[in-house]
Design goal:
By secondary structure, the protein is mainly α. The chain contains 11 helices and 2 strands, in the order H-H-H-H-H-H-H-H-H-H-E-E-H. It has 2 domains: 63 residues, Tetracycline Repressor, domain 2 (Orthogonal Bundle); 132 residues, no CATH class.
């Protein structure tokens, strides 16, 4: 009777990476379909068709798996996306225009991620170890883009830029979530791209006005 040929180290690594990807993708599907409350070891393992033991072996448990999803699942716009794909050109801009570009790309990035919009909606209702893992990624990217926007430039001493970031980000998050559940907000049709173009223009005007560069 022939015996199975032992796997080489590269083959074992490929199998491990493939299994991890199946589990990470399963987290996203469960989140989108059922919300945070159903993201459990047994549910995710069944969704992926993988033995739940491997969640502990590869990720150390459910929290580690959710953190991996947040970092590797295209959950959040990264710095390249927020800066428009050309960091050198981004850094050549003055402070106000850096913030305009980052804000515009952030809104577009959230809107092109229906799953992220669903997760944000659940995040408004839930707070637990799973939401904390997802929040850590949001906070990390947020800190990085804030640092990049200010990099090499002097921020006006009377400008509370952290508060400005919070207002801009909170506005975008809220409107993006509302887009998933409502047709209109404040009389604006959220299913019309012209509305989002108007919002982009107004956010840019707010930024330029606050920074003293309103046309």
């Amino acid at each position: 009777m022939a015996t199975a040929k032992p796997q080489s180290a590269p083959e074992r690594q490929r199998d491990r990476e493939a299994t991890m990807r199946l589990l990470i993708d399963a987290v996203g599907r469960v989140l989108a379909r059922q919300g945070f409350r159903e993201v459990k070891v047994n549910v995710v393992a069944r969704e992926a068709g993988i033995n739940k033991v491997l969640i502990y072996r590869y990720f150390g448990g459910l929290d580690g798996l959710v953190a991996a999803f947040a970092h590797n699942g295209d959950f959040w716009p990264d710095l390249d996306e927020l800066t428009g794909g050309d960091r050198e050109a981004f850094l050549a801009l003055p402070l106000v225009e850096r913030l305009v570009v980052a804000t515009r790309n952030y809104m577009r990035g959230i809107r092109r991620r229906p799953l992220t919009q669903e997760i944000l909606a659940w995040r408004f209702l839930e707070h637990n170890a799973l939401t904390e893992a997802l929040d850590s990624v949001r906070q990390s990217v947020g800190m990085q883009i804030m640092a990049l926007v200010r990099s090499g430039l002097a921020v006006p001493p009377n400008l509370d830029i952290a508060a400005l970031y919070a207002i801009l980000g909170g506005t975008i998050n809220h409107l993006s979530v509302r887009e998933r559940t409502e047709e209109t907000f404040a009389g604006l049709p959220l299913d019309d791209e012209a509305t989002w173009e108007r919002l982009e223009v107004m956010l840019a005007r707010i930024i330029r006005s606050v920074l003293g560069n309103e046309d």
